[in-house]
Design a protein that fits this description.
With 400 residues, the chain is α/β, with parallel strands linked by helices. It contains 17 helices and 11 strands. A 7-stranded parallel sheet has the order 4-3-2-1-5-6-7, sandwiched between helices. Helix 14 (312-322) packs antiparallel against helix 15 (325-342), helix 15 (325-342) packs antiparallel against helix 16 and helix 16 packs across helix 17. Bound molecules: magnesium ion.
Length: 400
Amino acid sequence: MIGVAILGATGSIGRNTLDVLERHPDTYRVVSLAARGDARRLAELCLRHRPDVAAMEQPEAAGELERRLREAGSPTRVACGAAAIEDLARDPAALVVMAAISGAAGLRSTLAAAAAGKRLLLANKESVVMAGNLLLAAVRAGGATLIPIDSEHNAIFQCLPAGGRIGERPAGVRRLLLTASGGPFLDWTAGAMALATPEQACAHPRWSMGRKISVDSATLMNKGLELIEATVLFGMEPRDVSVVVHPQSIVHSLVEYVDGSTLAQLGSPDMRTPIAQSLAWPGRIAAGVEFLDLARIGSLEFRAPDRARFPCLGLAEAAARAGGTACTWLNAADEVAVQAFLDKQLNFGDIPGVIERVMNDAPGGPMMDLDAVLGADASARDRARAVLAEYSAAARRTSA
Ligand code: MG
């Protein structure tokens, strides 16, 4: 039996992972589940999947989880705090770690799993963006196997030759092509986009995802973060990673080789495919995913991204070229701006402007160590909050 730890169990990736594991009860065992604060949902998952340990980052939530599990007579042990979640990432009982805690909050546990030499199923793209070279160093030092879960990077992983090393440019590859669905505002005017609501931004036409990544998909910052992620994971220069809009989300990304071959990975837009691929690699297991009916789909459409309506893509490309802590700053500025939008403190159309103003102050420089990354993250968040305060002061003046 292969033990699996799922960090970020209550989110969309965590629940999809449990769905795949449940189809293979003779092969995989859920060793541990971790989440930030949703005790009710984590309790339900513990009763169904019976992990040895469940951890919650927030103490009140851990207390509630403990109460719910004891009332139900569950044998699952409850742990509390970020350090406990890092312990689960290192636990020898888990050969596989699904790193699916979103945002900067998932960084430490992702690094811990890498350093412990796990099969690291990496869904936390922010850890690659904000601390890419530290993560690669931890993977190498720990002897971990990193397989990307982000559908685009998983598609590229599947289209690359076997035997490559993570973080090193594969021989014979000319360019990587990331596909973008274009999000819910693909065909909206800039004027309509400017005042879009969180509900509209989170209504993604193809994928069902958490709210932060849904807003990132609507601004195309998600694709920008994925471009940075691709440069890190596959050792590519930013200019050798292109973005193409593909509204059907059937082709999940492509690899262009120097001989003129372009290999693509196709499938239904369902995260259970990359999850199953990464669990079983180099084998294959069933994932419960609907198979493609190409005749019914009929045609696949591709177009260039509209950089005027989606300036976040260009901001991410600039950060990728600058490298080092510029990417940490970009990630932090985006998290703050998106949260302000979700809290109705910022208009959708102002998200790129906030990030751009924060990035104007981003110092260059390499990522030396985790403290430097966390310091850059904190500085960028401070700067983003200051810029947001200027925006709301300006908004008050306009409405007065
Ligand atoms: Mg993706």
